[in-house]
Amino acid sequence: MIGNDLVDLRQAAIESNWRRKGYLVKVCTPEEQELVLEASKPDEMLWLIWTMKEAACKIIQRKTGIRRYEPINFCCGSLNINKKNSSGIVSYFKDSFLMRSELSDTFIHSVAVSALKDFQHLHLQYLRPEPDYRTAFNRLSEFYQLAGTPSGIPELTHQITGQKHAVSVSHHGDYLAVIYSDSLLLAD
Amino acid sequence: MDREVIISAIKEVAAPYTQDKQALDEISETTSFITDLKINSANLVDIVLDLEEKFGIEIDNDSMAKMLDVKSTLDVIEAKLAEK
C-alpha cells in the first residue's frame, strides 16, 4: 500500500499556529519535538514530520477501514534530510513504513510505502488543485483512469487490464499530488 | 450539561477553521469535521485545544483519536465533564 500527504507552506503559515501552548505535545513525540525546536527552520521540520505521519496514517486507514486521529502514535525516525529531499521511517505500533519526502521552498510532499521495492514503480503527478483534477489526470495518463468512490477515496483503474492500482491523492492550498504504482494493486 | 449546548459550543469552536459556512449552519451529531466541514487535519488539534480551554477539561490522546465527528466529540466532552 501507498500513502501521500502534502502541505502548502504558505497556506500552513496562515492556517496553523503550531507554536500555541499544547499543540506540539499533542502531535509530536518528545524526540520529534526536539527535532522541531532545534531545527534551523522549525516550520519546515514540523510540516515534514506532519506529512510523514499523515502519509503513513493513510495506509493504516485503508488497511483497517477505521479513521482515528492520533498523530502522536505515528513516530518518525531515522530522518536523513538533504537540501531538497529526505528519507525516514514512520512506525505505528507493530507496523513501520518507509518514507521519502520532497522539500521545496513552497511545499512539502511525503510518500509512505510498506517495503523498499514499492518505491520502484511509483509515479508522481502534480496537478492544479481544481475540482476536475481527475479529468486533467486522465487526459495526461495513457493507461490509467482516475475516479473517486462516493466516500471520496481515489480509485485508479488500468484501462487494458481492468485492474485497480494503488493510488493516493493529497491536496493543500495551491498544490495537489497524485501518486500511483504500476506494480502494486489496490489490495497489496 | 445539555447536549444542544455542547453542540453549539463545538460549532463556535469549529467556526474559524472551516470555510464551509453552510455545512457549519447545518451542524448535527453526524457532522464530520474533515469530510463535511472540510477542516484541515492539522487544525483538528486546534479544535481539541480550544475545547479543552472552553470546558476546562483535559483531553488525553486516546480520546482525541475519536474526535473526528461531532457525536464522538460530544461523548468525549460529556465523559470528561463527568470526571471533574
UniProtKB/TrEMBL annotation, chain A:
Q: Give the InterPro entries listed for this entry.
A: 4-PPantetheinyl_Trfase_dom, 4-PPantetheinyl_Trfase_dom_sf
A Pfam entry, by short name: ACPS
Query: Which top-level group of life is the source organism from?
Result: Bacteria
Per the UniProt entry, the signal peptide is none
Electron transport among keywords: no
Limits of the 4'-phosphopantetheinyl transferase domain: 2-74
Which keywords are on file for this protein?
Answer: Transferase
Molecular functions (GO terms): holo-[acyl-carrier-protein] synthase activity; magnesium ion binding
What is this protein called in UniProt?
4'-phosphopantetheinyl transferase superfamily protein
Q: What organism does the record attribute this protein to?
A: Pedobacter cryoconitis
Automatic annotation (TrEMBL), chain B:
Domain named Carrier: which ranges? 1-81
Q: Name one Pfam family in it.
A: PP-binding
Q: Which Gene3D superfamilies match?
A: ACP-like (1.10.1200.10)
SUPFAM superfamilies the record matches: ACP-like (SSF47336)
This chain's protein is named Acyl carrier protein
Query: What is the originating organism of this protein?
Result: Pedobacter cryoconitis
